[in-house]
Amino acid sequence: MLRTPFMFSLLFSCPSGLPSTSRPLFVPAPPEQDESCPRGVAEPVVRKKVFPKTSFRRLPDKRTGLETVALPLGDRLTIHHEGCEYYVLRFHFETARFRQSPTALDAWFRNAAQLLTETAPGLDSPVDIAGGLRALRTYLDRHKGNKAQALVLGQEIAYGSETLPSFVSVDRIARLAGNTVAVELSLAIGPL
Questions:
Q1: Domain boundaries, the chain
Q2: pLDDT tens digits for 99-130?
Q3: Contact of 133 with 113, CB cutoff 8 Å
Q4: Residue 12's closest CA among 87, 104, 102, 112?
Q5: Which own/partner pairs from 57-63 qualify as long-range (CB within 8 Å, at least 24 positions apart)?
Q6: In this structure, are residues 14 and 131 in contact, taking their beta carbons and an 8 Å threshold?
Q7: d(C-alpha 37, C-alpha 39), whole Å
């Protein structure tokens, strides 16, 4: 498990060891913040041009943020920006598009990958989302039909550079009201 508590985690890096992005990895911390934390102020990662029904608010600690998105196919997404030693984007999707039982982990791991794939073009994140999706799909393919190694919620899937390690983990799938299911995943990078 990662050292930061969260429900579904994706921790990524690209082959060069640094995430592929048009944004700087971290925004410098304001002077009043704790100098022992290498991470700066939480910044939005959702591109409003792609997903206009989006809001972002920075929580009082300035390192934690909350972003909400109404997705075009009727799904809802909340992104929690958190962490210090690890930079974590925890994705909480609420969807009624898939009919499988939340206990059907193979189907829901694939659904989680699909939800993140659909959202990725509208994200400008300092973590390598595409690399994390590749790692998750490789993990799923390796476990397909393998009864000896069942999929496990919370399992870290390590990949990427040793200097800036990466992991992917699916941590929570839960039935909500009606046909809605919550799928939680997090993108993270670290230790920084």
A1: 9-189
A2: 899 999 989 999 999 999 999 999 998 888 88
A3: yes
A4: 87
A5: 62/29, 62/30, 62/33, 63/29, 63/33, 63/37, 63/39
A6: yes
A7: 6
